[in-house]
Amino acid sequence: MKRECLTIIGTAHVSANSVEEVKDTIYELKPDRVAIELDFARYTKLKNSMMGIEEDDTISVTKIIKENKVGLFLVATVLSYFQSKIGEDVDVKPGSEMISAIEAAEDLDIPIALIDRNVNTTLERALNRMSFFDKLKFLYGVLTGDIDEEEISIEDMKNPDKLDGLLEMFKDEAPEIYEVLVHERDAYLAGNLLRIPEDKVVAVVGAGHKPGINRYLDNPETIPPLEELNKVEDNKGIPWAKIFLALIPILFVVIFFLAYINGINITWNIYDFVAISMLMGFLGSILSGSKIQSAIVGGLVAPLTIIHPLLAAGWFSGLTEAKYRKVRQKDINNLAKIKSARELWNNNIFRILLVVIGTNIAVSIATLVILPSQVFIPLFMKIFGG
User: Which has fewest Cβ within 10 Å: 141, 215, 218, 259?
Assistant: First the structure.
């Protein structure tokens, strides 16, 4: 690709004007190749949609929970929700400008280059950079954040000066995600553009990436190897939260063991431990709106999950709930249309995740508050004669 022959169109992904701008530019310039900000999976999904092919949009919540990718799914859902919400407000389907680019390229028989990184790789790299408290802060910011739609228009999102201000707000809330979603992808997109063999190229990317791509293209030596940007590594550093959670059940077992070897009758203490754990697991699930079957499962596994630091009762109640509530892609799309608590309550994604979270919160209360005060501290005092 020749730098001077590259035309970058910075679009707002839900802008009707962007759709027309993309189509008009491609027809006017007739480039050798059209590059679009999509990976293969998203491209395939858009192509199927264009051809009227209905895909099985069932989302395997069971698989998500079993593979411990609830966090990844939540972030993807949040991002999808906001894009769908904006698209709903302006009556433009997210991805319309990419469809416009594909249609124009195919009409002119121009090859297409997919230059974006796989979305799951991007999200996993972002999550791996965040600490437990960073994730809580980000989730809180998302749930309580409020954008003044009267002050920010869709076309403002294409204005680099105004867009920089929006991105800076996001950078302050979640700098790790900002780095991966913006800076890393700027480098990835620029690196893939440089790999295009044809000279004359039109690239269709989100407006937020255009300044960064230009900076990297002006200084190609600063682009990291794309293989490095595709690696997904575990979060580095000491996982203090996991260590703390692991120490709690170990401490419980140690106290039971010390009581036993000191000849203290722990039968009723064990009964109390099991009863309190099961009751809280059951209540946490049922009060979150689960079916009775899910609540029973949450209660039954609660004592075991308290002792085992790598398990969570909410996973089991959530898995059970998922068997009765089929989740489809439309449940994510419908999040943008929700205007009342009743509509939110009827959304299957929300209901399943609520059961997972509710069960885990209740069992955590049992673990950190009720069991220590009612079982382990009294037992500890008996052991040491308090």
Answer: 218
Cα first-last separation, the chain? 78
For residue 156, what are the contacts with CB-CB under 8 A and spacing of at least 6?
A: 162, 163
Residue indicated by tokens 């509509």: 343
Strand order in the sheet with 112-114: 6-11, 201-206, 33-36, 112-114
Q: What is the pLDDT of residues 41-69, one digit of tens each?
A: 889 988 988 888 876 656 666 677 666 66
Cβ pair 349, 332 in contact under 8 A: yes
| Residues 103-132: b if buried by 16+ CB within 10 A, e if exposed | ebbeeeebebbebbbebebbbbbbbebbee
Residue pLDDT, tens place only, 195-219? 999 999 999 998 889 999 999 999 9
Task: Using only the alpha carbons of the chain, give its radius of gyration.
Answer: 26
Give the pTM: 0.63
In residues, how long is the chain?
A: 386
State the CB neighbour count (10 A cutoff) for residue 93. Answer: 16
Gap between the Cα atoms of 121 and 287, Å rounded: 36
Q: Which of 118-122, 172-176, 351-355 has the lowest mean pLDDT?
A: 172-176
Strongest mean pLDDT among 54-58, 158-162, 278-282, 330-334:
278-282
